[in-house]
Amino acid sequence: MAEKFVPRLRYGIKRAAFWLLWPAIAVIVWGELTPRPPQEISELLGWDKAQHFIAYFGLALMAVLGWSGRRVFALLLAVVALGGTLEILQAFVGRDAEWGDMLANTLGAVTGTILALALLAAARLVDRRRAE
User: Of the candidates 87, 107, 82, which has an alpha carbon nearest to the alpha carbon of residue 98?
Assistant: First the structure.
């Protein structure tokens, strides 16, 4: 039974990560470029840098899992570039761009990438052990 379930689960996670990445990007773009972001989110997480870290952690995690670890460095650079671009664009919508936000974005993206790579490596290890 597990022989059929595990590959299906892995495929489902890959597809979910791929398809959920796009609405996540849309929400993050909206959140960073809206002139007055909702206060409920700020109150929930408290620290602004934590919001940035979590958002880009999730983006990088979904990107790497959604593409099964291919082109990892390019995906990481794309997520970091998105964060940098949005920080620059904030100046045009009446918000303040901050280096601290960019640092939190980058650290979140790197951490999400590392976790995704660790999960993919663990999955490959399980596959090898089951094949023996």
Answer: 87
Closest by alpha carbon to 63, among 25, 7, 10? 25
Residue 43 is predicted with a pLDDT of 63
HEC string for the chain: CHHHHHHHHHHHHHHHHHHHHHHHHHHHHHHHHCCCCCHHHHHHHCCHHHHHHHHHHHHHHHHHHHCCCCCHHHHHHHHHHHHHHHHHHHHHCCCCCCHHHHHHHHHHHHHHHHHHHHHHHHHHHHHHHHHC
**Helix 99-131 / helix 72-89 crossing angle, nearest 10 deg:** 160
Per-residue pLDDT, 63:
95
Q: Which pair of structure tokens corresponds to residue 62?
A: 């979904």
Judge contact between 94 and 35, C-beta under 8 A: yes
Closest CA to 99 of 52, 36, 55, 30: 52
Residues 33-73 pLDDT 10s: 987 766 666 666 667 889 999 999 999 999 999 987 679 99
